[in-house]
């Protein structure tokens, strides 16, 4: 596992914080599976039970990959794509009347920030992996 340094501790805490909403969401969906299926149904998604199960697997599984460092870049790209799709599904502020638009627009752009954070995690992890290769082409 290696020696824990302050930098490694800060990195791990940052990754846990980045994944906190997905860990909480996945655990909540497991805890109240019927409510999670109802939420999926509310958004009009097909096969709500299957979509809910896949959502739980994505939220928890990708978070574990990111936090553990095992194939971190894959987990980060999965959560980036998931977040982008979910944001366009759940935060369509442009469809709302002006009076209700601002809070939903804020949530939309906050989620885009999360997407950016996950893309940075993937990029950093891939660069780190490439640097560890005995030979890496330019």
UniProtKB/TrEMBL annotation:
Keywords: Membrane, Transmembrane, Transmembrane helix. It is a multi-pass membrane protein. Pfam families: DoxX. InterPro entries: DoxX (IPR032808). GO terms for cellular component: membrane. The keyword Transmembrane applies. The chain crosses the membrane at residues 47-66, 73-90, 102-123. The keyword Membrane applies. It is found in: Membrane. This is DoxX family protein. It comes from Dyella soli.
